Amino acid sequence: FFGAPVCGIQALVFDRSGVAAVNWTEDHGANIWMLFGFVATLHIMYHLTSLYLTLDDATFLNLSLLTSDVWGVIASVVLFHTPPPSLYFVAFFFILVGLWIYGYHPLPSALEQHRDCLVTIEPGFEESDMEGRCVV
Questions:
Q1: What is d(CA 37, CA 61) in angstroms, rounded to the nearest whole number?
Q2: Count of Cβ atoms closer than 10 Å to residue 15 Cβ
Q3: How far apart are CA 38 and CA 14, in angstroms?
Q4: CA 89, CA 70: separation in Å to the nearest integer?
Q5: C-alpha angle 92/93/99, rounded to 5°?
Q6: Burial of 51 from C-beta contacts in 10 A (0-12 / 13-18 / 19+)
Q7: DSSP for the chain?
Q8: Are 61 and 49 in contact (CB under 8 A)?
Q9: Along the 136 residues of the chain, how does pLDDT read in single tens digits?
């Protein structure tokens, strides 16, 4: 919310001539709808990103964003009939392996947060032995 006025001022200062050169009535206001669609898409992306970050951490998000190049490869194959370079698949494989390794092990912060809850299970251990030790 607070970023909108800042962006508006930046647009007035730096893009004044570009905005003035746009023919806003051409194509029955298609330029306005494209601008509105762009702003709405960014708003949805930022909103969903903040929701995602409440569920998982930023490193996993950044690693996941590396896989977004798949859509570019699909578009190049379908629209332009251009196959991707062979090293693309090698790089994509390593990205997926990195995602798996990162997602497989618990986060160090989660281990530190619940270190009092980590116990060694020995023969005869019962769940009642844990009462009062951990608050999750």
A1: 24
A2: 11
A3: 19
A4: 10
A5: 90
A6: exposed
A7: -THHHHHHHHHHHHSHHHHHHS-TTGGGGHHHHHHHHHHHHHHHHHHHHHHHHHHS-HHHHHHHHGGGHHHHHHHHHHHH--PPPHHHHHHHHHHHHHHHHHHHSPPHHHHHHTGGG-----TT--GGGGTTT---
A8: yes
A9: 678 889 888 988 998 888 888 887 777 778 888 888 998 999 899 899 888 888 877 878 887 787 788 888 999 999 999 999 999 999 889 988 988 887 777 666 555 555 555 555 555 555 555 555 554 4
Question: Can you read off the two tokens belonging to residue 6?
Answer: 């800042």
Kindly report the length of the chain: 136
Tokens found for residue 114: 């619940």
